[in-house]
Amino acid sequence: MNIIIIGAGKMGLTLVRQLSKEGHNIVVVDNNKKVVEKTVNDFDVMGIYGNGADHEIQTEAKTQSADLLIACTSTDEFNILCCMVAKKLNAEIDTIARVRNPEYFTLFMSKELGLNMMVNPDYEAAMEIFRILRSPGTIKIEPFSGGKVDLVEFKLAWDNPLIDTAISDLTSKLQIKTLICAVQRDEEVIIPKGDFIFRENDKIHIIASPKDAHILMKKLGIFKSVAKKVMIIGGSRIAFYLAKQLDKIGIAVKIVEKNEQKAMELSESLDQAEIIIGDGSDRQVLQEEGLMNVGAVIILTGSDEENIMISLFAGSQKVNKVITKINRLSYYSMLEASGIESIISPHLLTANQIIRYVRGKQNSMGSSVLNLYRIVNDQAEALEFLATKTFAGLSKPLKALSIKPNLIIACILRDNNVITPHGDQTIEAGDKVIVVTTNEFLDDLNDILN
Known about the structure:
globular; 25% strand; 4 domains; Rossmann fold; Alpha-Beta Plaits; six-stranded parallel beta sheet; alpha/beta; single chain; 14 helices
């Protein structure tokens, strides 16, 4: 596909990196000449220096023949304007705008402005954190099929009953239907088979219904009660969205924000949250505000380095759950090594949304991608496909299919029923099929076959 990306900031570069790797023709537009030159040098893409909302600049970027334009600068109105200009040049082009202001982020606005999609990194990050807080024994939870199935990540502590157990013995030992679809052991990613044996510190990814996942957590002894109090460091938009969600389920929220004006704005818009004006990187401030008495702390300042330092301090104070926002993926391994495992990247979450859209558009006539998550530090993918009559393996037992290596069919959803796959199971038209793989660039269900 021919894709134009306007804005080469953190989110724009995340998209450039992934979409160029997937073989798309990318043109990057930015009003910072040095950024454009660096992007062109770092990736196999074209670059144009200039105003992305300018008619002539978009003509030079060949908007008139492009398939998709993504506007992801830091300004909502500018992103929307870029998309409107694109539609004037090419009525058939799909447009995606990054929009962070909650007043703009509505279906009505999207349709009125001719946008195919609005993405909000702050809202996506808030919802990701909210899901983790609802199940604090886990590292991460990703929903599929409207929440009928969850992809759950957790770590095996030294006393976990799974240690030294083979996957083939899992069902008889736990008496529950679940499927282990990926394991991270140190830096290695494994799509496990029946003879795989669990070890201490393995990070496990399972696919199960929320009910079965909850039962499994209890049986493994890693279920923890939901925090009654949480502290948020940094009064960002993520904090705003998250506090709104937590208020709905009765969780008390304290937000520490050092900017007085921002703190006052939060105080006016969040009736239930307690807003503290203070420096969240100051240990004394955190201790005085009761860091040791909260069930979870979420660090959301604008600085990765500051977030890391606060996270390490919170971890040293034995806070039950520490969730950290990080933009640079290179920091992930350092945080994980220190014991901080729930790490959120708004740009990566939003990039996944857009990549899912791109793959669905790319194969709109076949078994297109309904959902996509990049997991295990971006080294594997969990994808949800809609099975159509074009799938070559339709109605054949799974054991008769030649499946690509390093790939597992993790779940089948049929008429709202969650099916754990086995050799005699079949895939039928209309099924939703979830696969997990370390193979790259799958955009059709037929791609799982050799």
